[in-house]
Each structure stands twice: as C-alpha cells, then as structure tokens.
Amino acid sequence: NPGEALKIMISGAPASGKGTQCELITQKYGLVHVAAGDLLRAEVAAGSDNGRQAKEFMEKGQLVPDEIVVMMVKERLLLPDAEENGWLLDGYPRSLSQATALKKFGFEPDLFILLEVPEDILVERVIGRRLDPVTGKIYHLKYSPPETEEIAARLTQRFDDTEEKVKLRLRTHHQNVEAVLSMFKDITVKACDIIPFLSLSLSHIHNFVYIDGNGSKEDVFAQIDGWLTKLLEQRKATSESL
Ligand code: AP5
C-alpha cells in the first residue's frame, strides 16, 4: 500500500554485514531494526529461561528452536513503533517454518535483501568484530576501528565469534538459506527492473534483490539505498496515479 510504512527483510551469511547495513538503513529511513540475534542475546543477558535454552544452541552455531524464536520476533514486530515507522527484520526468517509462520501472521516484506560475501572474507570479518556495549555500535579491528582509545578499551567480543564457531554458523546458514529463499523468490524476475510498477500492481509478489556485500560498507549501502529509493519512488508514482 502506497502510504504504509516500509517493511524490509535482510538476510545473509554470518558476518555478511547485516547489522552494519541495518545501522545505516535505520539512520536514513527511520525503520525499526528488529534483529533476531540481538533479541536472543538480550534474553541470554537477562538470564531468562528462554535465554538459557537459546544459549546452548547459539554456542553450537545452530538455530534456536522455533518455540523460542517465532513468538519473540512476532511480539517485537507488533509493538507500536514497528507498526508506525516500519521495520527492518535482520536474521529472520532463517528456516522454512519461520518463513511460513511469518506469512501466516501477515508479515510480508516490501523488499527482501540478500547480502552475498565470499566465505573466506566472512571468517576474517567475524574474528575481527568487536561491539561497543555502551552504544551497541559494531566495529572491526581492521575495517572499522574504534574512533577513540576510550571506546577501544571497552569493546567486547561475542561468545560465538571464534573461527571454530563461525564455521558451524556457516554450515547452518548453508543448510537453510535455499529453503527461505524459495519462499521469497517466487518471482525470480526482478520485476521492477523489467516493467516499472509491475511489482506494485501485483502486490502479493515480493521484490527480491541480491546485493554484493563484498565492497566497503559505504558501497554496499549505496546499492541498498538505490533499491529503497526506487521502491519509495514507485510507491509515490502509484499513489499519484490512483
Ligand atoms: P546473529 O546475531 O543473527 O548472527 P549472524 O547471522 O551469524 O550474523 P552476524 O551478526 O554475525 O553478522 P552480520 O551479518 O550482522 O555482520 P556485521 O554487520 O556484524 O545470530 C547469532 C545466533 O543466534 C545464530 O547462530 C543462531 O544460533 C541464533 N539465531 C539468530 N537468528 C535466529 C533465527 N531466526 N532462528 C533461530 N536462531 C537464530 O559485520 C560483521 C563484521 O564485519 C563487523 O566487524 C563489521 O564491522 C565488519 N563489516 C561489515 N560490513 C563490512 C564491509 N562492507 N567491509 C568490511 N568489513 C565489514
């Protein structure tokens, strides 16, 4: 619907840059960033029952069971800020059952973005990643170093960011990605590339885009920004023609 807030899903292998791009997208578009991994880590930090159970799977690089994840994400998407400002769903759905559940609850994206990055680069990104517990900002010791000594001194590392664990996370990703894509790629033609407005006149059809995630974070964002701008322009044109 032309006047509705944007709903975007972003997917990709571990360390493909989802969180980094989500920071840039939310800064520009004001969408609410809903990251399944962040919601789970908050549960782990709070020491809840769900958190304790989730941590066992996260440590093995496996998917946390649907009983925990599905309701958690659904409840977050239903909060008023996400309904009002639109949402940017990061790292969810990661399995066919999660994708089916989302659809059943009526959450359909306007755009599904898949970040593609070669595997050797992913491992290097994971190992150098650091997080600022105060601001939540994502850094990389080499590619995105902290701005000050003070920030550098307080950076932390995720418990699943070791070479051994990222290999397990990558395996899980490869096992599931095709099933998820099959839900969102039912139009493999990039509709709006071929016939402008086609994707909107057939509103049950999703826009699906592959993004080359192997550039600088600014270059990757420029590609995503291009798609989001296009989407908003299409909407504007559709609402003007109504
Ligand atoms: P989650 O937290 O989602 O982790 P992930 O998918 O492994 O992805 P990451 O957060 O590691 O990476 P990212 O793509 O956000 O990359 P980032 O921007 O940080 O999930 C963790 C666990 O939770 C899962 O293993 C699973 O157990 C569980 N879980 C999560 N969702 C679930 C679900 N739906 N169902 C069941 N279980 C679930 O970038 C990485 C690094 O690279 C950073 O240091 C960054 O600075 C750097 N970087 C980013 N972009 C660039 C660039 N363009 N150039 C150079 N460096 C860059």
- Helix amount, in percent? 40-55%
Instruction: Tell me the series of helices and strands, N- to C-terminal.
Output: EHEHHHHEHEHEEHHHHEH
Please state roughly what percent of the residues sit in beta strands, choosing from under 5%, 5-15%, 15-25%, 25-35%, 35-45% or over 45%. Answer: 5-15%
The low-confidence runs, each spanning 5 or more residues with pLDDT under 50, are: 187-205
- Ligands, deduplicated: BIS(adenosine)-5'-pentaphosphate
The CATH topology assignment is Rossmann fold
- Taking Cα atoms only, what radius of gyration do you get, to the nearest Å? 18 Å
Mean pLDDT, nearest integer?
A: 90
Tell me what the CATH architecture is. 3-Layer(aba) Sandwich
Number of strands: 7
By CATH reckoning, the class would read Alpha Beta
Global structural class: alpha/beta
Number of helices: 12
Shape: globular
Note the gap between the termini: 11 Å
Strand order of the largest sheet: 2-3-1-4-7
CATH superfamily: P-loop containing nucleotide triphosphate hydrolases
The major pleated sheet works out as: 5 strands, parallel
Q: Can you describe what's shown?
A:
The protein is globular, with a radius of gyration of 18 Å. It has helices spanning 18-29, 36-46, 49-59, 66-77, 80-85, 96-104, 119-128, 149-154, 163-184, 191-194, 198-201, 217-241, and strands at residues 7-12, 32-35, 87-90, 111-116, 129-131, 138-140, 207-212. Mean pLDDT is 90; it is low at 187-205. The chain is an alpha/beta fold. Strand 5 and strand 6 (138-140) form a beta hairpin. It has twelve helices and seven strands. It has a single domain (7-230), classed as Rossmann fold (3-Layer(aba) Sandwich). The strands form two sheets. The protein has a five-stranded parallel beta sheet with strand order 2-3-1-4-7, with helices on both faces. The termini are close together.
